Amino acid sequence: MEMSEAGSPEGLPRRTVLRYGAAAAGAAGLARPARAFAGGRPGRRVAVLGAGVGGLTVAHELAERGFEVTVHERRSVAGGKARSLYVPHSGTGGRRDLPGEHGHRGVFGFYHNLPDTLRRIPLPGGGSVFGNLTAVSWIELARSGGRPAIPVPVRSGRLHLANADLLVASVAGLLAESLRLPPGEAAFFAKQAVMLFTSCTERRFGQWEHVGWWDYIEAARMSQDYQRLLGGGVQLLQALRPPTASARTSGQGLESIVYDLVGRGSDGPADRIFDAPTSEAWIDPWVAHLRGLGVRFAFGQHVEHLELHSGRIAAAHVRTAQGGSERIDADWFVAAVPSERATTLWNGALRAADPRLAAMDGLQQVWCNGVQFFLRHPAPVIAGHIVHVDSPWKLVSISQSRLWRAPFARTWGDGRAQESLSVDVSDWETPGILYGRPARQCTRAEIAREVWAQMQQHLGRTSPHGLDDGLLHSWYVDEAITDAPGGGTRNDDLYLLNTTGSWDLRPDAATAVPNLFLAADYVRTYSNVDFTSMETANEAGRRAAAAVLVAAGATEAPAVRTFKGYEAPEFAAAKAEDRTRWQRGLPHVLDSRRRAPGRGAIPTSPQLTT
């Protein structure tokens, strides 16, 4: 199979100055004027280090409250991992460069903080960015070896939540019917899930945070299908990798999905994506709106050092795109860079000032990047997320352009590509099927060929029922992945992995340094989602902004809202009973293994407002 990459892998994606044309000016005109709640007083200058979702969120919240915000970003564009990736020099005839994503993009119904922000970003001509979301109706669990796929409708249904026994029976029936698991395995998993749903907060953090999901669901003694579907194969939520994640974190994600599917506490459909490339539908209008609020952006600035003096951050020092250095002075500093970059900023003085920063050294990062396949004709697959259950590289794909409003061939590329198939590669350590090597030991071209072959194993090789080689126009691997001189690849964009016990390693948004705050997806969050996601980054930005208001004494400014996750009232009595059992040192009433409760650190949640 001959495959060619669209554009040059060495060059940066071509950026249009204003991808939305006049959108920036229009959004600026629609923007609410910044209210000078802190006006006239010193202490309003804020330096936000990083323009990902967390950094843009804290800039948004503080600019609305009259603070003078400058966002410093090492790249030439904003958005971090949420930004779209454009294939350099691929647009011809007035069309835009071919678009792709960091991986599959999902805005789930159990998100609440992020949708609130989307509603507050105006679009030229009226409406908001929230209106650019479109529902995904199906998720397919594709299987290899000629086994039939398992389509799962993503719409509200009915589960009995009246009591634990009925819920166990309902979940077991759903698993047995939809995932075709043996009834005994389905019933056991359902019981374990309900045990998490009815555990008190103290047990969740004190016990289940320190038990691995694989062990919790006893995957080692179960069938291969059970292991792949529930113990390691389903990677729609990229941060929840069952072999390494805690039972608390994985259970939290499962609980959120279940409530979403039964229409409890959801902010819209269970699964949504944007109806255009993410940068065009969200990031570009957001940046335009922030500029309208007075936020300044300094691109091409890589923060290298935080200067601590008399217990406070005196300045940040950055390296510019031209190779020079600059000093950043501000009253308040918000570090909104990923965890692996943040820890390089924590020098000895900062670690001594706040040991919570030093604890971050124990956080783990992995590779999780996307590959885009541009097709000559629409692929014969569902218009939704496809989980390639048996793929060694744990692939999730979506024919995203089918859900976009603009006609693909007339809008992007050279007019011959009809569709964009976006694929997330979650496992870069397991050998593949073509070259027998892990993804990180392959070249970019080998990664593309391997991913295509693994998808063909699940979706077939020939049309009209699969991925025919003739469909392929070109491919593009995430620009963060570059070929290494000695073979294999390097990755400039790592992904925080939620692991067993990692809650104890994560800091809060406010640090012990009184003018240093944190706004990224590694920050502790207290809603119904605390695993790596756009939602947690958004909540972290909100919490950082709230902490700045407190430190600045801006008591007259409106409070920064955060949203508490849904809790089923039917389980309140069960949780109260479990709290009593926890305090007496007893296991959960559904714990058939009669495990002795642990005594891990129990979080004290900051005040949540809704």
Automatic annotation (TrEMBL):
Domain Amine oxidase: 54-549
GO MF term set: oxidoreductase activity
Identification of the protein by name: FAD-dependent oxidoreductase
Tree of life domain: Bacteria
Organism of derivation: Streptomyces morookaense (Streptoverticillium morookaense)
Stretch list, region Disordered: 586-610
Record-linked InterPro entries: Amino_oxidase, FAD/NAD-bd_sf, TAT_signal, Zeta_carotene_desat/Oxidored
One Pfam entry name: Amino_oxidase
Residue runs in coiled coils: none
